[in-house]
Amino acid sequence: MRESPTRCVDLEGESDSGSDAEFDAEADVDVDAEDALEGETESESDSVGVSCTRTRGRALSSAAISNCPNPAMPTAAQVRASKSIKSLHLKTTAKKKPHPLCSHTCGQNGKIAEVKKRIIQAAKAVGMNNAQTKLALSIAMQESETLSKHDGSKSGSSANWSIFNMNSDMIGRIKKKTNQYVNYKCKECKKYNGTSESAIKGALKIMKAAIKRWGASKFLWFLRGGGTGFDAFPKEKRCVYNGKRLLCEEYVRSMGTYLTILDRQPEFMTNDLRVCIDVQHV
Predict the structure, then answer these.
(1) pLDDT, tens only, 206-223
(2) Per-position DSSP letters for 35-76, written without gaps between them
(3) Are 222 and 230 within 8 A, CB to CB?
(4) pTM above 0.85, yes or no
(5) How many CA atoms lie within 13 A of 21 on its CB side?
(6) Rounded distance, CA 78 to CA 74, Å?
(7) Distance between CA atoms of 103 and 14, rounded to whole angstroms?
(8) Other CB atoms within 10 A of residue 243 CB
């Protein structure tokens, strides 16, 4: 129940619609320019030397973004073979095609690369392993177009904190070392917001503890669906709030896609591009 954008946006232009690219096969995951638009354009280089051309005020054409490519879409077999998924024991039984990538990723003048760097450094500082670090990067890319904001639209136990959008309920259960709802007020949780080193480090301490306590899959259900998702795990039919499906299992599948991309194309762990996967907002 947090911001999971269904489109990828060039923040100096207009949004670009999602791609129709999909996996070639269904599979369970059970594991650990002439054509450029007219207008003022500018080029930049990301941290791995990819030249990214953006157009101010207009959506980018396919030619204009050809120098700023999407990550390669993994196959179902590659997802099944993902070392990070196996390491995390990430599980989903949905027999559906995983979500497509958005049509392009978005350069942000080095800002995204800097946040990625801070996430990796903070993850190392709190003792996260490589797969957990990739999961943290994946969540940050899914939850915010800039890897810098949290969803401030909710309150109470559903209030979200940090660039990873962890809710008050989750943080309270970790702080109190309980699996039960504790009506945690989370007065200190503002310190987790933003992209400072201390904010990211504090949030990742909570994330690491949650993964250790409940496992990566249940943690992701809690992240996606709040207390409803936590109680429903692993039964997708129960992941419903006020008659609305929260799509907890689909969120886990999207994380599987992110993790496979980061396994196979590690440059996306450090470059200035946000991998964008099409997941319905709830």
Answers:
(1) 999 999 999 999 999 999
(2) TSPSS-EEEEE-TT--EEEEETTSPPPTTTTTTSPPPPPPPH
(3) yes
(4) no
(5) 17
(6) 6
(7) 13
(8) 5
Structure tokens that stand for 152 in this block? 């401030």
What backbone torsions phi and psi does residue 41 show, to the nearest 5 degrees?
A: -120, 160
**Does pLDDT of 180 surpass 50?**
yes
For residues 106 and 112, give the distance between their C-alpha atoms in angstroms, rounded to a whole number: 9
Residue by residue, DSSP assigns the chain as -----SSEE-TTS-EEPBP----SS---EEE--TTSPSS-EEEEE-TT--EEEEETTSPPPTTTTTTSPPPPPPPHHHHHT-HHHHHHTEEE---SPPPPBBS---B-TTHHHHHHHHHHHHHHHTT--HHHHHHHHHHHHHH-TTS-----S--GGG-EETTTTEEHHHHHHHHTT-SS------TTGGGG-SS-HHHHHHHHHHHHHHHHHH-HHHHHHHHHHHHHHHHHTT-GGG-EETTEE--HHHHHHHHHHHHHHHHH-GGGGTSSB---B-----
Please write the tens of the pLDDT for every residue from 43-96.
333 333 232 333 333 344 444 344 456 788 888 888 888 999 999 999 865 455
pLDDT score at 29? 38
